[in-house]
Amino acid sequence: MQMATALLKALRVVCFCLTLPAAKTFQVTFQEQSDKTLQVTSEVLDKLGISPSSGSQRGTAADLQAPPRFRWGFFRGAGESVKASPTQQPLAKTPPSAPQPQIKHNDIFKAAEVGDVEAVRALIASDRYKDGKSILDKRDESQYKNTPFLVAAEKGHVDVMSVIHEKKPDVLQQTDENRDNALHHAASNGRLAAVDQLLEWDPKLIDARDKGGKTSFMLAAYYGHVKVMEALFAKGGEKLLTQTDNSGTTPFILAASSGHVGALKALYAKGGKELLTEKDNRGWTALHWAAYSNQSAAVSQLLEWGGGALLNIKTTKWSGEKTPWELAKEKPNIRKIMKEYKNKK
Ligand SMILES: *[C@@H]1O[C@H](CO)[C@@H](O)[C@H](O)[C@H]1NC(C)=O
Fold first, then answer.
1. Ligand 1 center from residue 238 Cα (angstroms)
2. H or E element: which one contains 188?
3. CATH number of the domain at 247-345, please?
4. Are 24 and 33 in contact (CB under 8 A)?
5. What percent of the chain has pLDDT over 70?
6. What's the pTM value of the predicted model, to 2 decimals?
7. Which domain of life is it from (predicted)?
8. Pick from 118, 154, 249, 344: CA 20 to 30 A from residue 95's CA?
9. Is the pLDDT of residue 340 over 70?
10. Which atom of ligand 1 lies at the shortest distance from residue 334's CA?
11. Every domain range in the chain assigned CATH 1.25.40.20
């Protein structure tokens, strides 16, 4: 009974202490207790897993820092977390409008997208791993579910990429829903500096295929980023010219289908005439694709290189045995270009 009364008393003291606004007062109150009460209080605090247990110990805001055995949040209700640093005012004295650190972007994806390297640095520094997952493993809400690193690569922010890579080198293995890695992203968007940096970190990225079997080189060709193509070619060499995706499509055919004459020229300078008769799985050549996609500049360029013979190359049986000439039937502007070559070899 006596024991219970003492415990009750002690608990009241504990509760009182816990409701005190500032940690500094915490200390003073301890010193004002009688020795006996202090001892009991200490025991109860210990049982509750609360430190400090001695009146001589300073209960400062620093004690609330991780990894504490005791957190104010525990008593304040779920969802409320406490951020305090030894140099800051005790929590309760901090006005709600206290100046925040100079971070313009609190969202890691926004920060990565706009190249706010200081914000990215700060967000990484304040990262609390959740379920063993870092902020750098987070996925955005886009269709492809990008990570912060993939976003930075897409935008070509090499400084942001470097800060992220330094913290978590395995971001190089991250891919999106289409299985595109950072090099795919940088190459698709013509981010030359990012491409160079990625190749320096890991030259093997160049061989990576996405869901459709496309390499970064294929994407650079499709989007017409000649400088990126050259950077990739310098590392990957000749084999890049003949690699095909899951549909048997080559970089040259991809460049023709999107009408990027600059990319066609860069490829032709390396691969020559053989590229003109390359076929994909349906037997379509670059000219088939250029005609079908209504890319008049590409059609002109291909015919200039290959002449009228290209117009009569048939596709495979199952795709209708169509020639580029036939595919252009409903495209008068393409037919007009072709006519000039039709009867010439
Ligand atoms: C093909 O492109 C031309 C412009 O280059 C355009 O006028 C024409 O409508 C396009 N044809 C088709 C079928 O999309």
1. 35
2. helix 182-188
3. 1.25.40.20
4. no
5. 70
6. 0.71
7. Eukaryota
8. 118
9. yes
10. 1
11. 103-245, 247-345
